[in-house]
Design brief:
The protein has two domains: 21-265, Metal-dependent hydrolases (TIM Barrel), CATH 3.20.20; 267-299. 29% of the residues lie in helices and 23% in strands. It has helices spanning 46-51, 77-86, 101-109, 145-154, 194-206, 246-254, 267-295, and strands at residues 21-23, 26-31, 54-65, 91-94, 116-125, 128-133, 158-161, 182-187, 210-213, 225-232, 258-262. Strands 1, 2, 3, 4, 5, 6, 7, 8, 9, 10 and 11 form an eleven-stranded mixed sheet that branches. Strand 1 and strand 2 (26-31) form a beta hairpin. The relative contact order is 0.15. The model is unreliable at 4-18, 31-45, 47-52 and 278-299 (pLDDT under 50).
Length: 299
């Protein structure tokens, strides 16, 4: 079991070419205005550029992870946290389907693993799934997408659209996404990468922030896709990710101070997950049918 203080490896795809030093798991360095980390700053001269040079920290997160509280996953929370620490992540967001208990638990015990955890839920709206990052109370499933986004924001949280457009995975259609706080532009379970590229183009064209998430339903896939969130160093006391203020992370994500990286799950992993989903839906359908027969409620 990996606990706080244990040595951790770097996340997948990470290297030291960004000019940042690793401190307590968080990369620190200097970012000049106009870089990816500060997309809205546009200095007009070299002197202004120098005056805008800001010490920064980069926090690496997997923002889309499932545990056994999801109907289609049997991975214990501790396995998820252990894997996240071993993968070199600074934090995660557990986003179980329409359930929040394990995510709230993760936010409490993650520091024991040297991690920062954002509570969240993958909410089933009438129009498709949405990730509610930073909520303390589960948004009610089954409501229109726009109403769900409003409720999420009322909790001081942000609404991210995962695997958009994909009907087979309950993706929200493009014409429904009028307002949100970000788009999942890299989902590790999009095995061909085609949908990820479509999502990235959509986010860029519409001006939405882009994030990445593994959508892991097994521990070994945690960290397969990573969102690097770029903050001022002062937001990460002593380079300790467990001391980060949640609000500053959420604000940075919504502002688009992110970069994404990672790989894709193997076709075998995807087939296994879809087969499990079919099995769960079949068993649920059988139980529902038997229940209707017993009660006489058969259409």
């Amino acid at each position: 079991m990996t606990r706080a203080g244990a040595q951790r490896t770097r996340p997948c795809g990470a290297d030291s070419s960004d000019g940042q030093e690793r401190v307590g798991g968080v990369r620190t360095g200097e970012t000049r205005a106009g870089s990816k980390s500060t997309p809205n700053a546009k200095p007009n001269s070299e002197s202004e550029l120098e005056s805008h040079r800001t010490p920064t920290a980069t926090v690496s997160l997997d923002l889309h992870v499932h545990t056994a509280e999801s109907y289609d996953c049997d991975t214990p929370l501790v396995d998820v946290l252990e894997r996240a620490a071993d993968a070199g992540l600074d934090g995660i967001c557990v986003t179980d389907h329409d359930a929040i208990e394990q995510s709230l638990a993760a936010a409490t015990i993650a520091p024991e693993y040297g991690l920062f955890a954002i509570p969240g839920v993958e909410v089933s709206t009438r129009d498709g799934h949405v990730l509610a990052l930073g909520v303390e109370t589960r948004p009610e499933p089954g409501r229109p997408f726009s109403e769900t986004v409003t409720e999420i924001r009322s909790q001081g949280a942000i609404a991210i659209v995962p695997h958009p457009f994909r009907r087979s995975r309950h993706g929200v259609p493009a014409d429904v996404i009028e307002d949100c706080d970000g788009i999942e532009v890299h989902n590790a379970m999009c095995v061909t990468g085609v949908r990820n590229r479509q999502a990235a183009r959509f986010a860029e064209n519409r001006g939405f922030a882009g994030v990445a998430g593994s959508d892991a339903h097994t521990a070994r896939l945690v960290g397969r896709a990573v969102t690097d969130v770029h903050l001022e160093s002062a937001a990460v006391p002593d380079g300790d990710p467990t001391a980060i203020d949640r609000g500053r992370i959420l604000e940075a994500i919504a502002d688009g101070r992110t970069t994404v990286r990672g790989g894709l799950a193997s076709p075998t992993s995807c087939v296994r997950k879809y087969a499990q989903n079919v099995s769960v839906k079949f068993r649920t359908g059988v139980r529902t049918g038997i229940g209707r027969l017993r009660t006489g409620n058969v259409e």
